[in-house]
Design goal:
Pfam families: Aminotran_5 (PF00266). Its cofactor is pyridoxal 5'-phosphate. Belongs to the class-V pyridoxal-phosphate-dependent aminotransferase family. SerC subfamily. One of its GO terms (biological process) is L-serine biosynthetic process. By secondary structure, the chain is α/β, with parallel strands linked by helices. It folds into two domains: about 20-260, Aspartate Aminotransferase, domain 2; about 260-365, Aspartate Aminotransferase, domain 1, CATH 3.90.1150.10. The protein contains nine helices and 14 strands. It has helices at about 20-30, 45-65, 80-90, 105-115, 230-235, 245-260, 260-280, 315-325, 350-365, and strands spanning about 10, 70-75, 95-100, 120, 145-150, 150-155, 160, 170-175, 190-195, 205-210, 290, 300-305, 330, 340-345. The radius of gyration is 21 Å and the shape is globular. About 45% of the residues are buried.
């Protein structure tokens, strides 16, 4: 399906939504389910919204195979808000928490957490972020409140694959903001799994938090009610007005994922998309350069330079200009690292990825003299 005037949006987030979802939203904007109002006009405490809310929770549980001993919460504040909420809720009687810092977002999480708990980094982070150090060299223990990691570093294109880190008998906390439902997920050893919806699951403003039940009720006394897992669970995520439009959007995206065959089918498609782009990079004789260790290359955010390891600003500007002329937008790398970043979230089709691949091949043919 294609709509006239639509760009191929490779943005890192807020990101592309499936066109089927956008069309359904357009259709129901003035009259949701024959109620004569839009979802964003409905009371969050109405019976009708309650049905939508509970259906959305059930879809998450079904698609991710969320075990029964986990609660699913809809919160606000983005993934960044959870950087504070996690130590506020999980500190309990512990003195410290362990953090795996592999990029910008896990680094920010550790910095924020220091306000509420002592933070220990299991290894000394080293820039530039291009890999995950061997776990045999990590220093962490069973006295930590939890072990935190970012499953996919959006800025640097580093993803924990194929499995989560070793937990060492403490709850794992996973930031899955940028690979939420991009692949099957194993909840083994996890205490909290969270992510913003604006990359793979909907619109900005909604944060989905999946919490193991035995960790609930350990919040610090200073924990704001809107960040308290216990408070949110007691009120079925309706302690205050939730992002009703965001929940509705996520509901439609979840139905779209289910119709596509679920997470395994989505994952296989994501492997094809990322494999197509990484293949061009690897076959370019160094014209395109991805610094990330191949074991940890993200299938969501493909980051690379043009013209060599340090990049050539002139070539990269020309590449981006040509991409826009070919209807592709938001391929510029994060301002902190530069270069090119192609975010291949679930809504990006294989056909759209092929447009980028074709341009990469054309551009390399013109400029690569190696």
């Amino acid at each position: 399906m294609s709509l006239a005037g639509r760009k191929i949006n490779f943005a890192a987030g807020p990101a592309k939504l499936p066109e089927e979802v956008l069309l359904k939203m357009q259709e129901e904007q003035l009259n949701f389910n024959g109620l004569g109002v839009s979802v964003i006009e409905m009371s969050h405490r109405s019976k009708e919204f309650g049905v939508l809310l509970n259906e959305t929770i059930a879809l998450i549980r079904e698609l991710m195979n969320v075990p029964d001993n986990y609660e699913i919460l809809f919160m606000q504040g983005g993934g960044t808000g959870q950087f504070a909420a996690i130590p506020l809720n999980l500190k309990g009687n512990h003195e410290h928490a362990d953090y795996i810092v592999t990029g910008a977002w896990s680094s920010k999480a550790a910095e924020e957490a220091q306000k509420y708990i002592k933070v220990k980094k299991v290894f000394q982070p080293s820039k530039p972020y291009v890999t995950v150090p061997d776990q045999e060299g990590w220093v962490h223990d069973e006295k930590a409140a939890y072990l935190y990691y970012c499953a996919n570093e959006t800025v640097h294109g580093i993803e924990f694959t194929p499995t989560a880190p070793e937990s060492h008998n403490v709850p794992l906390v996973a930031d899955v903001s940028s690979n939420f439902m991009a692949r099957p997920f194993d909840f083994k050893d996890h205490g909290v799994v969270f992510g913003g919806a604006q990359k793979n699951l909907g619109a900005a403003g909604l944060t989905i938090v999946i919490v193991r039940k035995d960790l609930i009720g350990k919040q610090q006394g200073i924990t704001p009610a809107v960040f308290s897992y216990q408070e949110m669970i007691a009120n079925n995520s309706l302690y205050n007005t939730p992002p009703t439009g965001g929940i509705y959007t996520t509901n439609l995206v979840l139905k779209w994922i289910k119709a596509k065959g679920g997470l395994q089918a989505i994952y296989e498609l994501n492997l094809k998309k990322s494999g197509l782009i990484y293949g061009i990079i690897d076959d370019s004789n160094g014209f395109y350069h991805c610094a990330v260790d191949k074991k940890y290359r993200s299938i969501m955010n493909v980051c690379f330079r043009i013209g060599g390891p340090k990049g050539n600003d002139k070539l990269e500007e020309e590449f981006l200009k040509g991409a826009v002329e070919r209807n592709m937008i938001s391929l510029k790398g994060h301002r902190s690292v530069g270069g090119i970043r192609a975010s291949l979230y679930n809504a990006i089709s294989l056909e759209e990825t092929q447009v980028l691949a074709t341009w990469m091949n054309e551009f390399a043919k013109i400029h690569n003299t190696n």
